[in-house]
Amino acid sequence: MKGSFIVNGKKAEWSFAPDAVLLDVLRNNGHTEVHRGCGEGECGACAVILEGRLVNSCQVFAASAAGQKITTVAGIGSIHSPHPIQQAFVEAGAIQCGFCTPAMILAVFCLLQKTPNPTDDEIRKALDGNLCRCTGYVKIFEAVRLAARRMSSNE
Amino acid sequence: MNEFSVVGKPVLKVDSLSLACGSAFFTADFTVKDPLFLAFFYSPHAHAEITAIDDSPARAMEGVVDVFHSGNTSSGLFTTAGQGYPEPSPYDTRLFNKTVRYAGDIVGAVLAESDKTARAAARAIAVEYTLLLPLFDPEKAMDGDVPRIHGEDEYAPLPVAYRPEQNIAGEVLFSFGNVEKGFTEADFIEEETYNTHCTSHCAMEPHAATASFDEHGRLVIYSSTQVPFHARRIVSMTTGIPLHRIRVVKPRIGGGFGSKQEVILEPYVALAAWKHKRNVRAELTRREVFTTVRTRHAMRVRVKSGFKKDGTITALQMDDLMNTGAYGAHALTVLSNAASKVLPMFNKIPNMAFTGHAVYTTLPVGGAYRGYGATQGYFAFNQHVDAICRKVGADFVEYVKKWHIREGETSEVFRAIGEGTEGVSQIVRSCKLTECLDRGAEEIRWNELRGKRLRSGSVVKGVGAAVSMQGSGIAMVDMGSASMKMNDDGSFNLFAGATDIGTGSDTILSQIAAERLGISVEMIVILSSDTDLTPFDTGAYASSTTYISGQAVLRCAEKIGEQLLSTASSMTGAPVGNLSIGKGGKVINSADGSEIPFSEIACYSMYSRNQFQIQAQASFFGEESPPPFMAHFAEVDVDMETGRVRVVKFVSAGDCGQPINPVLALGQIEGATLNGISYALTEQYLFDAKGKMTNNSFWDYKIYGSLDIPEVKAILAESSEPSGPYGAKSISEIGINGPAPAIANAIFDAVGIRLRELPMTPEKVLAAIKAKAGR
Amino acid sequence: MNRIEWYFPETIDEAAALLARERTVPHGGGTGLVKSGLSSFSGVVDLAKLPLNYLKMEKGILEIGASQTFASVAENLSNLCPDCILVAALGSAASTPLRNRITIGGSVSFFPPWSDLIGPFSVLEGEICTEGKNSGTYDLSSWLANRPVQQGTLVTSVLLPDAADWDSCYYREVRVGFDYPAFTVSVVARKNGSKIEKVRAAVSGGLERVTRLSGIEDGLNGKDLSQLASLDVKKMARVTFGRKPAGSAEYLSEIAAVHVERCLKSVLLGGGELR
């Protein structure tokens, strides 16, 4: 079947199987910044923002997301013009292997949109679906606090 | 303290922005033209002989290209362990074994036009088995009347003890002094048995490999590997493809922790691609990673020591039984480390004996895993020391400070145990363990909390400590190399064989080169781990990269420095003796203070006279393996009614010599600490009665996440290791050794029970609390 | 290959008509269908366009449309009725990205053994409203007892007739923060001074999926708070479990009772030692 999506602000028309999940459709169409860590909704590496909400793209049928707005990490900033959250992750040393990072950054993006100055508990909770095996989260939490500070002082 | 300008600074990780923005490529992200997909089928039985494979239902499916299995494809014996060659692991497996030895053993692989088809076809294949008796209990593995797991052909390529007829995949024995005599001199004997369990690395990126062809028809393998050069050698060995026709490229790697030191997928994609001359991809699911890749070896550790009333240990005996599972990947080295990285800690014990056996069972295969062996050994050792302290009324911290190995000292153990060879005698030249203990104790409020059993309702607080050491590479075995060349603008390309698997080694190696040449890291353009482009390196394991590969880079940069001076001398006529490398990319003439920018030197060398490329290469192999040290402290709350243990705070204070990059070093400690806590409390493989893993997903194999992490404090107690690059030692593994024993000791401090078996689940804790209360 | 057709109805009648077809399944947006796969179906009815994404409180009756996700229920209720036990329960279920997908309707349809909805639903004595073949209103026990009732039928909303003004406590037994619970404990109560006007308690995850602790409720309803101390709650709260990866049946049964007692103390006596 066919479906159109608004991916990172651009319209995309893709064909896919009726039982295809969004993760596969995104990756097959070049969005390799969306990673597959488990395919079962438990690691969060595939998370994207769907209509403003963080979702595991491996748990969303592409068919059910047709017509909707999808944001991947490439949609919030690029290597030439990184988003403050991306920059904060770099500066806080929150990235080791970086496999979980794109989805983790999107989780933070969703958090800070709603809660510009999150408490530590709110940070933990916002990242509860994104597993990281490298960092122990210490520097990820630091990155979130850093990004929050910067983003709220700019606004 | 040395004055560094790049080393010791929190330089931003060179690949981190690309990872944050999603522009970095992992193995599965490469697009290759019209790829075929490889999917595996596995043994459902723990132990069986394959009698027939009917692949016709699969071959009949549209889109299926080929099916590989023992009925049509043979390979020689080899080991999946990516180690120095010949490996210290037995050659006990083939690409497709006729006997399957664990539920999850690879039986064959389907090659098809799509991943979906390949997986569907893999399910359609009918395999007939003759069931053999399984062997699940490692304690029984060496008995005469149990099934023998390996046959007549398997062998060890190195002259090491290997006795498959007794299911022994590895053996380590050594002793000095006379332990029996030592025991008779003791006032007390403490003897207990500890059991550690098998766990999964859970690197977030599942294993993947893609084989494609370059324009000359050479095979290019992109692989999520920690050991690209070993992978190339093993692919050639198992498939017969000439090594010079193979290129292995390591892109970004989504974590390894040892799991990608195993060469699992590469030979299969190579075989399929080479046969059909088509690009081939393989990507394991998380479930496949759990069941078929590798685990931390489970180990039974029995420790016995005799000691006097003042705590002086007169003799110590350790007997380890390690379950290597179906194959002996890393069996001997992990077993060795359980002694060689543990027993030197108390180097003044006059009588010591170690017996270790790695045995085959029909369970998933053990392998390299962060801390390899030391983690298991220290779980027992630190609880043992805590028990001694409590018996003689000593404080753990003070006791360890009194007895631990110090600078200028050695241990018999270093010489006795290597990794497949004899060990290498070495003197410890940097050790700040006492400082680690002091700073850690202060941070955890040791004196305020220890023994106080502060209570709030049913919850009791305790603190516990542990110490550990690791190594920095494998002495006389590991080798790293690097080359550099200079560009017109005074920047340098650095080509390192070393493999950055997320640890930050690309950054650290760039820092070392930049420091030596007085330039910023931006002027170093690093490319690592491509068997065509970079020089050789044994790979990312055994805490080797900073120490071994770092030293290679430093030597290489030194050679570059010499060329810069001699070139500047030819340019200006100034004697080399007057010239030195300044800061900011220039050579300084001390006679007149004049400066020659690197860019002018580069252009001179390339375009002016006697043109040549300023370039160099260097290798380094470690003649010793200086240990990093760490003190680990846990503060726990134990719920007496439910057995739930909550780690409130964890402190890891480590001596890694001079940290090349403190942020990355702290990150290694923090990550290893959380992995270690998770290992201690929740992670475990659950098996059904037939030996099949029943919890092969994150749904039921629980690892710690953002909600679970306690307050973690990592501390660096800097020292300077004379043999290391800019004084550096390793840091990547050691942090995982402490959480399990520190938490166990803290639980004892809180409620007086010893948890000698991992993981320390609430149910086990509650049962122990009840047993103690006599209920 | 099985042909699968997706439908996106905009009205409930349209959806109900589609669901009356053979091998046609509703999809609320959650993960249940992704996990089970679509291979046994020929039609999928996507419910996203139905006007079921609402949550309203009228005359003390809380009505939650089937398309509300756990995240939106927790969010909307935290403004409307912040002490409601559903805020704690649905706000801590699964993980952030999953809470953003799991819907009330889907959850009610599956009511898996690890549900975070079923315990609170039981103590709030909720009802399930359906349209289509078996349209009607069902209480929890009749719903659970009659799974075939869902055939060709669409869950449209749940009604919680008396959801506000309870003191509540919710506990989920998990191995790590992001886990499905081995069991849950739900306790709600209303007090008047030192008198217990009404208390309700339930344990989910045992062999009977959800167990109302009527013995405890009967022993406390209408009594003085001091009555709690005289009940052997740990004995009365014993629920039978099967073995789970989180622990043996005996262990789970024992600690579930511990947590029932803690929740009761927390709700009735306040404070306590809960985390």
What does this protein look like?
The complex is a heterotrimer of chains A (155), B (775) and C (275). Chain A has 155 residues and is of the alpha+beta class. Chain A has 6 helices and 5 strands. A 5-stranded mixed β-sheet of chain A has the order 2-1-5-3-4. The model of chain A has no long low-confidence stretch (mean pLDDT 97). Chain B has 3 domains: 178 residues, Alpha-Beta Complex (Aldehyde Oxidoreductase, domain 3); 247 residues, Aldehyde Oxidoreductase, domain 4, CATH 3.30.365; 128 residues, Aldehyde oxidase/xanthine dehydrogenase, molybdopterin binding domain (Aldehyde Oxidoreductase, domain 4, 2-Layer Sandwich). In chain B, the strands form 7 sheets. In chain B, strands 3-5-1-12-9-10-11 form a 7-stranded mixed β-sheet. A 5-stranded mixed β-sheet of chain B has the order 7-16-15-14-8. In chain B, helix 14 links the parallel strand 21 and strand 22. In chain B, helix 17 crosses helix 18. The radius of gyration of chain B is 27 Å and the shape is globular. Chain C has 3 domains: 42 residues, no CATH class; 106 residues, Uridine Diphospho-n-acetylenolpyruvylglucosamine Reductase, domain 3 (2-Layer Sandwich); 103 residues, 2-Layer Sandwich (Enolase-like, domain 1), CATH 3.30.390.50. Chain C is 33% helix and 24% strand. Chain C has a 5-stranded antiparallel β-sheet. In chain C, strand 6 and strand 7 form a beta hairpin. The longest helix of chain C has 21 residues. Chain C starts with a strand and ends in a 6-residue tail after the last helix. In chain C, 54% of the residues are buried. The model of chain C has no long low-confidence stretch (mean pLDDT 94). Chains A and B meet through helix 3, helix 4, helix 5 and helix 6 of A and helix 1 and helix 17 of B.
